[in-house]
Design goal:
This protein has two helices and eight strands, in the order αβββββαβββ. By secondary structure, the protein is of the alpha+beta class.
Length: 118
């Protein structure tokens, strides 16, 4: 039992720390090499995704325990399938991004990765 606990502590310590919130700004969202546009974050609200910065509306979101709960639609991401989960990710360089996992109409799962735009 001690070995299992020690192994769990070592694995957890090796994982990069992810902030428990999203910084204000634009996040580029991709499935593989396909750009799905940018999601804008301001405080505890979001808009998008959009390609031209013309967002259709602002909606609330919450972060807790490394997950994101969206309080409204996610544009084309929501249209592509049912949102199954959304988690915060380490986007590198001390920045936090997020992944949105969807289940499309054919039952397959896809992950949309969003990271701070440069």
């Amino acid at each position: 039992m001690t070995r299992i606990l020690l192994a769990a502590v070592l694995v957890t310590a090796a994982l990069p720390a992810v902030a428990q919130d999203l910084a204000d700004g634009a996040y580029t969202c991709m499935i593989g090499s396909m750009n799905l546009g940018e999601i804008a974050i301001s405080g505890k609200t979001y808009a998008g995704p959009a390609f031209d910065g013309k967002y259709e509306g602002w909606y609330p979101f919450q972060t807790a325990g490394g997950t994101v709960t969206w309080g409204g639609p996610l544009g084309g991401i929501s249209l592509a399938g049912t949102v199954v989960s959304s988690v915060l990710t380490d986007a590198g360089a001390g920045q936090t991004g997020f992944d949105v996992t969807i289940q499309n109409a054919s039952g397959n799962f896809q992950t949309v990765s969003c990271y701070p735009s440069s």
